Amino acid sequence: APVSLWGGRFAGGPSQALAALSQSTHFDWRLAQHDIEGSRAHARVLHSAGLLSEDELTAMLEALDVLSTDVASGDFLPLLADEDVHTALERGLIERAGSELGGKLRAGRSRNDQIATLVRMYLREEAKVIGGLVLDVADALVEQAAAHPDAAMPGRTHLQHAQPVLLAHHLLAHVWPLLRDVDRFIDWDVRAARSPYGSGALAGSSLGLDPEAVAADLGFDGAVENSIDGTASRDVVAEFAFVSAMLGIDLSRFAEEIIVWNTKEFGFVRLDDAYSTGSSIMPQKKNPDIAELARGKAGRLVGDLTGLLTTLKGLPLAYNRDLQEDKEPVFDQVDTLTVLLPAFAGMVSTLTFDTQRMAELAPQGFSLATDIAEWLVRQGVPFRVAHEVAGACVRVCEDRGIELWDLSDADLAEISEHLTPGVREVLTVEGSLRSRDAAGGTAPVRVAEQLEAAKVQIAEY
Ligand code: ARG
Fold first, then answer.
1. pTM higher than 0.90 for the full model?
2. Element (H, E) at 160
3. Is residue 158 annotated as part of the catalytic site, yes or no?
4. Environment class of residue 382 by beta-carbon count within 10 Å: exposed (0-12), middle (13-18) or buried (19+)?
5. Which atom of ligand 1 is nearest to the CA of 83?
6. pLDDT per position as a tens digit, 99-144
7. Catalytic residue among 73, 158, 206, 408
8. Nearest-atom index, ligand 1, CA of 84
9. What structural domains and CATH numbers belong to the chain?
Protein backbone atom coordinates (compact mmCIF):
# COMPACT_ATOMS: atom_id res chain seq x y z
CA ALA A 1 0.00 0.00 0.00
CA PRO A 2 1.24 3.53 -0.69
CA VAL A 3 2.92 5.18 2.28
CA SER A 4 2.45 8.86 2.93
CA LEU A 5 5.17 10.60 4.92
CA TRP A 6 2.74 12.92 6.68
CA GLY A 7 -0.62 11.19 7.25
CA GLY A 8 -0.88 11.45 11.04
CA ARG A 9 -2.66 14.71 11.57
CA PHE A 10 -4.97 14.33 8.54
CA ALA A 11 -8.44 12.79 8.70
CA GLY A 12 -8.46 11.90 5.02
CA GLY A 13 -6.05 11.48 2.13
CA PRO A 14 -5.14 14.17 -0.38
CA SER A 15 -7.59 15.06 -3.14
CA GLN A 16 -6.83 13.77 -6.61
CA ALA A 17 -6.24 17.32 -7.76
CA LEU A 18 -3.70 18.05 -5.01
CA ALA A 19 -1.91 14.75 -5.56
CA ALA A 20 -1.63 15.49 -9.28
CA LEU A 21 -0.23 18.96 -8.63
CA SER A 22 2.12 17.93 -5.85
CA GLN A 23 3.57 14.82 -7.49
CA SER A 24 7.21 15.06 -8.58
CA THR A 25 8.45 11.51 -9.21
CA HIS A 26 8.24 12.03 -12.98
CA PHE A 27 11.30 14.25 -12.65
CA ASP A 28 12.90 13.68 -9.24
CA TRP A 29 13.17 9.91 -9.72
CA ARG A 30 16.47 10.54 -11.44
CA LEU A 31 17.82 11.36 -7.95
CA ALA A 32 16.82 7.94 -6.56
CA GLN A 33 20.36 6.54 -6.32
CA HIS A 34 21.61 9.75 -4.72
CA ASP A 35 18.75 9.54 -2.23
CA ILE A 36 19.78 5.99 -1.33
CA GLU A 37 23.42 7.08 -0.98
CA GLY A 38 22.22 9.81 1.38
CA SER A 39 20.22 7.22 3.31
CA ARG A 40 23.31 5.04 3.77
CA ALA A 41 25.24 8.00 5.20
CA HIS A 42 22.28 8.94 7.37
CA ALA A 43 21.97 5.38 8.72
CA ARG A 44 25.65 5.54 9.73
CA VAL A 45 25.24 8.75 11.74
CA LEU A 46 22.07 7.36 13.36
CA HIS A 47 24.25 4.42 14.42
CA SER A 48 27.06 6.71 15.64
CA ALA A 49 24.47 8.62 17.70
CA GLY A 50 23.29 5.38 19.27
CA LEU A 51 19.92 5.43 17.51
CA LEU A 52 20.55 2.26 15.46
CA SER A 53 22.24 -0.84 16.87
CA GLU A 54 25.08 -2.53 15.00
CA ASP A 55 22.67 -5.21 13.74
CA GLU A 56 20.10 -2.66 12.74
CA LEU A 57 22.72 -0.71 10.78
CA THR A 58 23.82 -3.86 8.98
CA ALA A 59 20.25 -4.82 8.15
CA MET A 60 19.45 -1.26 7.06
CA LEU A 61 22.46 -1.07 4.72
CA GLU A 62 21.60 -4.49 3.26
CA ALA A 63 18.02 -3.40 2.61
CA LEU A 64 19.28 -0.18 1.00
CA ASP A 65 21.60 -2.21 -1.25
CA VAL A 66 18.72 -4.41 -2.36
CA LEU A 67 16.60 -1.33 -2.96
CA SER A 68 19.43 0.25 -4.98
CA THR A 69 19.74 -2.87 -7.14
CA ASP A 70 15.98 -2.96 -7.68
CA VAL A 71 15.90 0.72 -8.60
CA ALA A 72 18.76 0.21 -11.06
CA SER A 73 17.09 -2.79 -12.69
CA GLY A 74 13.71 -1.10 -12.84
CA ASP A 75 12.15 -3.74 -10.57
CA PHE A 76 11.30 -1.00 -8.11
CA LEU A 77 9.50 2.01 -9.53
CA PRO A 78 7.53 4.87 -8.01
CA LEU A 79 3.76 4.45 -7.87
CA LEU A 80 1.36 7.17 -8.88
CA ALA A 81 0.44 7.56 -5.21
CA ASP A 82 4.06 8.27 -4.19
CA GLU A 83 4.36 12.00 -3.74
CA ASP A 84 8.06 12.24 -4.51
CA VAL A 85 11.29 10.26 -4.77
CA HIS A 86 11.73 10.26 -0.98
CA THR A 87 8.22 8.91 -0.38
CA ALA A 88 8.64 6.17 -2.96
CA LEU A 89 12.00 5.08 -1.55
CA GLU A 90 10.73 4.96 2.02
CA ARG A 91 7.97 2.65 0.78
CA GLY A 92 10.60 0.56 -0.99
CA LEU A 93 12.77 0.41 2.11
CA ILE A 94 9.86 -0.64 4.34
CA GLU A 95 8.91 -3.34 1.82
CA ARG A 96 12.48 -4.69 2.11
CA ALA A 97 13.44 -3.99 5.75
CA GLY A 98 10.02 -4.20 7.42
CA SER A 99 8.18 -1.23 8.88
CA GLU A 100 9.88 -1.47 12.29
CA LEU A 101 13.43 -0.98 10.98
CA GLY A 102 12.49 0.87 7.79
CA GLY A 103 10.52 3.37 9.86
CA LYS A 104 13.61 4.38 11.84
CA LEU A 105 15.59 5.92 9.00
CA ARG A 106 13.61 9.14 8.76
CA ALA A 107 14.64 10.28 12.26
CA GLY A 108 16.53 13.57 12.26
CA ARG A 109 16.23 14.34 8.58
CA SER A 110 13.66 16.07 6.43
CA ARG A 111 12.93 15.99 2.75
CA ASN A 112 14.00 19.63 2.87
CA ASP A 113 17.63 18.91 3.75
CA GLN A 114 17.56 15.71 1.69
CA ILE A 115 16.48 17.31 -1.55
CA ALA A 116 18.84 20.27 -1.14
CA THR A 117 21.70 17.79 -0.73
CA LEU A 118 20.67 15.44 -3.54
CA VAL A 119 20.44 18.24 -6.11
CA ARG A 120 23.97 19.31 -5.25
CA MET A 121 25.28 15.74 -5.46
CA TYR A 122 23.64 15.25 -8.84
CA LEU A 123 24.74 18.58 -10.30
CA ARG A 124 28.32 18.14 -9.09
CA GLU A 125 28.54 14.88 -11.05
CA GLU A 126 26.86 16.31 -14.12
CA ALA A 127 29.07 19.41 -14.10
CA LYS A 128 32.08 17.10 -14.47
CA VAL A 129 30.45 15.21 -17.35
CA ILE A 130 29.43 18.42 -19.11
CA GLY A 131 32.89 19.92 -18.52
CA GLY A 132 34.43 16.89 -20.25
CA LEU A 133 32.07 17.28 -23.21
CA VAL A 134 32.95 20.97 -23.46
CA LEU A 135 36.62 20.02 -23.60
CA ASP A 136 35.80 17.73 -26.54
CA VAL A 137 34.41 20.74 -28.40
CA ALA A 138 37.46 22.80 -27.41
CA ASP A 139 39.68 19.97 -28.63
CA ALA A 140 37.88 19.86 -31.97
CA LEU A 141 38.41 23.61 -32.40
CA VAL A 142 42.07 23.35 -31.42
CA GLU A 143 42.62 20.55 -33.92
CA GLN A 144 41.02 22.58 -36.69
CA ALA A 145 43.22 25.53 -35.71
CA ALA A 146 46.30 23.32 -35.75
CA ALA A 147 45.35 21.94 -39.16
CA HIS A 148 45.17 25.47 -40.62
CA PRO A 149 48.21 27.31 -39.29
CA ASP A 150 48.55 29.81 -42.17
CA ALA A 151 45.01 30.19 -43.49
CA ALA A 152 43.83 33.80 -43.55
CA MET A 153 40.27 35.05 -43.41
CA PRO A 154 38.44 38.36 -43.29
CA GLY A 155 38.21 39.40 -39.65
CA ARG A 156 35.02 41.31 -39.04
CA THR A 157 33.56 43.94 -36.77
CA HIS A 158 29.91 44.90 -37.22
CA LEU A 159 29.91 41.89 -39.58
CA GLN A 160 31.86 44.11 -42.04
CA HIS A 161 35.37 43.33 -43.26
CA ALA A 162 37.70 44.86 -40.69
CA GLN A 163 41.23 43.39 -40.75
CA PRO A 164 42.62 40.08 -42.00
CA VAL A 165 43.12 37.47 -39.28
CA LEU A 166 44.28 33.88 -39.20
CA LEU A 167 41.49 31.30 -39.28
CA ALA A 168 43.31 29.60 -36.39
CA HIS A 169 43.16 32.85 -34.40
CA HIS A 170 39.42 33.09 -35.01
CA LEU A 171 38.81 29.45 -34.04
CA LEU A 172 40.85 29.88 -30.86
CA ALA A 173 38.71 32.91 -30.01
CA HIS A 174 35.91 30.40 -29.49
CA VAL A 175 38.10 28.09 -27.41
CA TRP A 176 38.89 30.51 -24.59
CA PRO A 177 35.25 31.27 -23.63
CA LEU A 178 34.56 27.52 -23.59
CA LEU A 179 37.54 26.97 -21.28
CA ARG A 180 36.24 29.76 -19.06
CA ASP A 181 32.90 27.93 -18.91
CA VAL A 182 34.76 24.81 -17.75
CA ASP A 183 36.60 26.97 -15.19
CA ARG A 184 33.24 28.35 -14.05
CA PHE A 185 31.95 24.83 -13.36
CA ILE A 186 35.14 24.03 -11.43
CA ASP A 187 34.91 27.25 -9.44
CA TRP A 188 31.17 26.67 -8.85
CA ASP A 189 31.97 23.28 -7.35
CA VAL A 190 33.76 24.97 -4.43
CA ARG A 191 30.39 26.41 -3.39
CA ALA A 192 28.41 23.31 -4.33
CA ALA A 193 30.65 21.09 -2.19
CA ARG A 194 28.79 21.96 1.06
CA SER A 195 26.23 19.46 2.29
CA PRO A 196 22.86 20.62 3.71
CA TYR A 197 22.18 17.11 5.10
CA GLY A 198 21.50 17.38 8.84
CA SER A 199 19.80 20.75 8.53
CA GLY A 200 16.50 18.93 9.05
CA ALA A 201 13.41 20.86 8.03
CA LEU A 202 15.19 24.17 8.79
CA ALA A 203 16.49 24.30 12.36
CA GLY A 204 18.96 21.42 12.56
CA SER A 205 18.69 18.14 14.43
CA SER A 206 18.21 17.45 18.13
CA LEU A 207 19.34 13.84 17.86
CA GLY A 208 23.11 14.26 18.08
CA LEU A 209 23.69 13.53 14.37
CA ASP A 210 26.92 14.81 12.87
CA PRO A 211 26.36 16.75 9.62
CA GLU A 212 30.12 16.82 8.95
CA ALA A 213 30.26 13.01 8.99
CA VAL A 214 27.38 12.80 6.49
CA ALA A 215 29.03 15.46 4.34
CA ALA A 216 32.34 13.57 4.25
CA ASP A 217 30.52 10.31 3.54
CA LEU A 218 28.78 11.88 0.53
CA GLY A 219 31.96 13.38 -0.91
CA PHE A 220 31.35 16.96 0.16
CA ASP A 221 34.10 19.22 1.51
CA GLY A 222 31.98 19.95 4.56
CA ALA A 223 28.51 20.75 5.86
CA VAL A 224 26.69 24.08 5.39
CA GLU A 225 27.25 26.68 8.10
CA ASN A 226 23.57 27.42 8.61
CA SER A 227 20.65 24.99 8.54
CA ILE A 228 18.18 27.65 7.37
CA ASP A 229 20.47 28.67 4.52
CA GLY A 230 21.13 25.01 3.73
CA THR A 231 17.46 24.21 3.19
CA ALA A 232 16.18 27.53 1.81
CA SER A 233 18.79 28.77 -0.65
CA ARG A 234 19.15 27.70 -4.25
CA ASP A 235 21.79 30.17 -5.42
CA VAL A 236 24.13 27.24 -6.00
CA VAL A 237 21.56 25.67 -8.33
CA ALA A 238 21.01 29.02 -10.04
CA GLU A 239 24.74 29.47 -10.54
CA PHE A 240 24.91 26.08 -12.25
CA ALA A 241 22.03 27.25 -14.43
CA PHE A 242 23.91 30.44 -15.31
CA VAL A 243 27.06 28.59 -16.32
CA SER A 244 24.96 26.22 -18.45
CA ALA A 245 23.16 29.13 -20.08
CA MET A 246 26.45 30.95 -20.73
CA LEU A 247 27.86 27.79 -22.28
CA GLY A 248 24.80 27.58 -24.54
CA ILE A 249 25.34 31.18 -25.59
CA ASP A 250 29.04 30.59 -26.27
CA LEU A 251 28.15 27.63 -28.50
CA SER A 252 25.43 29.62 -30.26
CA ARG A 253 27.90 32.36 -31.23
CA PHE A 254 30.01 29.89 -33.22
CA ALA A 255 26.84 28.16 -34.43
CA GLU A 256 25.66 31.41 -35.99
CA GLU A 257 28.96 31.82 -37.79
CA ILE A 258 28.81 28.29 -39.16
CA ILE A 259 25.31 28.93 -40.45
CA VAL A 260 26.48 32.10 -42.21
CA TRP A 261 29.77 30.58 -43.43
CA ASN A 262 27.83 27.64 -44.88
CA THR A 263 25.75 29.86 -47.19
CA LYS A 264 26.34 30.04 -50.94
CA GLU A 265 27.28 33.71 -50.53
CA PHE A 266 30.04 33.03 -47.98
CA GLY A 267 31.07 29.55 -49.02
CA PHE A 268 33.66 29.33 -46.22
CA VAL A 269 32.76 25.88 -44.88
CA ARG A 270 31.35 22.58 -45.96
CA LEU A 271 29.59 20.35 -43.43
CA ASP A 272 30.19 16.65 -43.31
CA ASP A 273 27.23 14.56 -44.48
CA ALA A 274 27.07 12.84 -41.09
CA TYR A 275 26.57 16.20 -39.39
CA SER A 276 24.07 17.86 -41.73
CA THR A 277 20.51 17.18 -42.79
CA GLY A 278 18.43 17.19 -45.97
CA SER A 279 15.06 18.58 -46.97
CA SER A 280 11.95 16.48 -47.49
CA ILE A 281 11.01 18.49 -50.59
CA MET A 282 14.17 20.14 -51.95
CA PRO A 283 16.52 17.40 -53.10
CA GLN A 284 19.57 19.67 -53.30
CA LYS A 285 19.45 20.82 -49.68
CA LYS A 286 22.10 20.21 -47.06
CA ASN A 287 21.26 22.08 -43.91
CA PRO A 288 23.33 23.07 -40.85
CA ASP A 289 20.77 21.72 -38.38
CA ILE A 290 23.25 21.05 -35.57
CA ALA A 291 24.34 24.68 -35.59
CA GLU A 292 20.71 25.82 -35.76
CA LEU A 293 19.72 23.55 -32.89
CA ALA A 294 22.67 24.84 -30.88
CA ARG A 295 21.48 28.37 -31.53
CA GLY A 296 17.91 27.42 -30.66
CA LYS A 297 18.78 25.48 -27.55
CA ALA A 298 20.75 28.44 -26.22
CA GLY A 299 17.37 30.15 -25.90
CA ARG A 300 16.01 27.20 -23.99
CA LEU A 301 19.03 27.14 -21.65
CA VAL A 302 18.57 30.83 -20.92
CA GLY A 303 14.86 30.18 -20.35
CA ASP A 304 15.71 27.53 -17.77
CA LEU A 305 17.90 30.02 -15.91
CA THR A 306 15.30 32.77 -16.12
CA GLY A 307 12.52 30.49 -14.90
CA LEU A 308 14.58 29.36 -11.93
CA LEU A 309 15.64 32.87 -10.92
CA THR A 310 12.03 34.00 -11.15
CA THR A 311 10.95 31.14 -8.87
CA LEU A 312 13.54 32.16 -6.29
CA LYS A 313 12.78 35.88 -6.31
CA GLY A 314 11.15 37.07 -3.08
CA LEU A 315 10.95 33.65 -1.36
CA PRO A 316 10.99 34.10 2.42
CA LEU A 317 13.12 31.80 4.60
CA ALA A 318 13.14 28.90 5.05
CA TYR A 319 11.90 26.05 2.79
CA ASN A 320 8.91 26.78 0.57
CA ARG A 321 7.31 24.29 -1.74
CA ASP A 322 8.10 26.62 -4.64
CA LEU A 323 11.59 25.17 -4.36
CA GLN A 324 10.37 21.92 -5.87
CA GLU A 325 10.44 23.92 -9.12
CA ASP A 326 14.24 24.20 -8.95
CA LYS A 327 14.91 20.80 -10.45
CA GLU A 328 13.27 20.65 -13.88
CA PRO A 329 15.15 23.69 -15.25
CA VAL A 330 18.59 22.30 -14.40
CA PHE A 331 17.62 18.75 -15.39
CA ASP A 332 16.53 20.16 -18.73
CA GLN A 333 19.87 21.96 -19.06
CA VAL A 334 21.78 18.77 -18.28
CA ASP A 335 19.75 16.78 -20.81
CA THR A 336 20.05 19.49 -23.43
CA LEU A 337 23.80 19.90 -23.07
CA THR A 338 24.54 16.18 -22.97
CA VAL A 339 22.93 15.68 -26.38
CA LEU A 340 24.06 18.96 -27.88
CA LEU A 341 27.77 18.94 -27.02
CA PRO A 342 28.76 15.63 -28.69
CA ALA A 343 26.90 16.57 -31.88
CA PHE A 344 28.56 19.99 -31.82
CA ALA A 345 32.02 18.50 -31.34
CA GLY A 346 31.43 16.12 -34.24
CA MET A 347 30.26 18.94 -36.48
CA VAL A 348 33.33 21.05 -35.65
CA SER A 349 35.87 18.29 -36.14
CA THR A 350 34.43 17.36 -39.56
CA LEU A 351 34.13 20.91 -40.94
CA THR A 352 35.97 21.52 -44.21
CA PHE A 353 37.19 25.06 -44.76
CA ASP A 354 37.53 26.61 -48.21
CA THR A 355 40.76 28.32 -47.21
CA GLN A 356 41.38 29.60 -50.73
CA ARG A 357 38.11 31.52 -50.79
CA MET A 358 38.66 32.83 -47.28
CA ALA A 359 42.16 34.02 -48.16
CA GLU A 360 40.91 35.65 -51.36
CA LEU A 361 38.32 37.63 -49.45
CA ALA A 362 40.62 38.49 -46.55
CA PRO A 363 42.11 41.68 -48.05
CA GLN A 364 38.93 42.78 -49.83
CA GLY A 365 36.69 45.57 -48.56
CA PHE A 366 39.85 47.69 -47.94
CA SER A 367 40.68 45.68 -44.85
CA LEU A 368 44.36 46.69 -45.21
CA ALA A 369 43.62 50.39 -44.69
CA THR A 370 44.65 50.22 -41.02
CA ASP A 371 47.94 48.68 -42.16
CA ILE A 372 48.64 51.75 -44.33
CA ALA A 373 47.91 54.03 -41.38
CA GLU A 374 50.08 52.05 -38.99
CA TRP A 375 52.90 51.82 -41.56
CA LEU A 376 52.80 55.62 -41.80
CA VAL A 377 52.97 55.89 -38.01
CA ARG A 378 56.09 53.72 -38.07
CA GLN A 379 57.54 56.30 -40.55
CA GLY A 380 56.91 59.03 -37.96
CA VAL A 381 53.60 60.39 -39.30
CA PRO A 382 51.10 61.33 -36.56
CA PHE A 383 48.20 58.85 -36.48
CA ARG A 384 45.61 61.58 -37.07
CA VAL A 385 47.30 62.40 -40.39
CA ALA A 386 47.99 58.74 -41.18
CA HIS A 387 44.30 57.91 -40.66
CA GLU A 388 43.31 60.70 -43.10
CA VAL A 389 45.84 59.53 -45.72
CA ALA A 390 44.73 55.89 -45.53
CA GLY A 391 41.13 57.06 -45.73
CA ALA A 392 41.98 59.04 -48.87
CA CYS A 393 43.48 55.87 -50.41
CA VAL A 394 40.19 54.06 -49.76
CA ARG A 395 38.17 56.91 -51.28
CA VAL A 396 40.30 56.91 -54.46
CA CYS A 397 40.02 53.13 -54.78
CA GLU A 398 36.28 53.18 -54.19
CA ASP A 399 35.83 55.85 -56.91
CA ARG A 400 37.87 53.83 -59.40
CA GLY A 401 36.53 50.43 -58.41
CA ILE A 402 40.00 49.08 -57.55
CA GLU A 403 41.68 47.63 -54.46
CA LEU A 404 44.38 49.32 -52.35
CA TRP A 405 47.22 47.31 -53.86
CA ASP A 406 46.15 48.42 -57.36
CA LEU A 407 47.24 52.00 -56.60
CA SER A 408 50.37 52.90 -58.61
CA ASP A 409 53.42 54.52 -57.05
CA ALA A 410 52.30 57.76 -58.71
CA ASP A 411 48.78 57.42 -57.24
CA LEU A 412 50.26 56.90 -53.80
CA ALA A 413 52.63 59.83 -54.06
CA GLU A 414 49.78 62.05 -55.23
CA ILE A 415 47.68 61.13 -52.19
CA SER A 416 50.54 61.86 -49.78
CA GLU A 417 54.26 62.53 -49.95
CA HIS A 418 54.63 60.04 -47.08
CA LEU A 419 53.30 57.16 -49.21
CA THR A 420 56.54 55.82 -50.69
CA PRO A 421 56.53 52.40 -52.44
CA GLY A 422 57.75 50.86 -49.15
CA VAL A 423 54.10 50.83 -48.02
CA ARG A 424 53.54 47.84 -50.30
CA GLU A 425 55.14 45.57 -47.70
CA VAL A 426 51.93 45.82 -45.65
CA LEU A 427 49.56 45.76 -48.62
CA THR A 428 49.47 41.99 -48.56
CA VAL A 429 47.56 39.74 -46.20
CA GLU A 430 50.78 38.01 -45.13
CA GLY A 431 52.49 41.31 -44.36
CA SER A 432 49.47 42.54 -42.44
CA LEU A 433 49.20 39.35 -40.39
CA ARG A 434 52.94 39.23 -39.68
CA SER A 435 52.91 42.81 -38.42
CA ARG A 436 50.34 42.13 -35.66
CA ASP A 437 52.88 40.41 -33.48
CA ALA A 438 52.05 41.82 -30.06
CA ALA A 439 50.95 39.27 -27.43
CA GLY A 440 47.47 37.95 -28.25
CA GLY A 441 47.68 39.21 -31.84
CA THR A 442 47.04 37.38 -35.09
CA ALA A 443 50.67 37.09 -36.29
CA PRO A 444 51.41 33.43 -37.12
CA VAL A 445 54.15 33.22 -34.44
CA ARG A 446 51.78 34.51 -31.77
CA VAL A 447 48.93 32.24 -32.85
CA ALA A 448 51.27 29.23 -32.75
CA GLU A 449 52.10 30.14 -29.13
CA GLN A 450 48.44 30.63 -28.36
CA LEU A 451 47.61 27.23 -29.81
CA GLU A 452 50.24 25.63 -27.56
CA ALA A 453 48.87 27.47 -24.53
CA ALA A 454 45.34 26.23 -25.28
CA LYS A 455 46.61 22.66 -25.70
CA VAL A 456 48.49 22.85 -22.41
CA GLN A 457 45.49 24.25 -20.57
CA ILE A 458 43.17 21.57 -21.99
CA ALA A 459 45.64 18.82 -21.04
CA GLU A 460 45.80 20.14 -17.47
CA TYR A 461 42.07 19.73 -16.64
N1 ARG B 1 9.67 17.29 -3.26
C2 ARG B 1 10.12 18.43 -2.53
C3 ARG B 1 11.12 19.24 -3.34
O4 ARG B 1 11.52 18.82 -4.34
C5 ARG B 1 10.74 18.02 -1.24
C6 ARG B 1 9.69 17.75 -0.26
C7 ARG B 1 9.52 18.84 0.67
N8 ARG B 1 8.14 18.86 0.98
C9 ARG B 1 7.63 19.42 2.04
N10 ARG B 1 6.38 19.36 2.19
N11 ARG B 1 8.39 20.04 2.90
O12 ARG B 1 11.49 20.33 -2.94
1. yes
2. strand 160-166
3. yes
4. exposed
5. 1
6. 999 999 999 999 999 999 999 999 999 999 999 999 999 999 999 9
7. 158
8. 1
9. 16-107 (1.10.275.10), 112-192+226-360 (1.20.200.10), 361-454 (1.10.40.30)
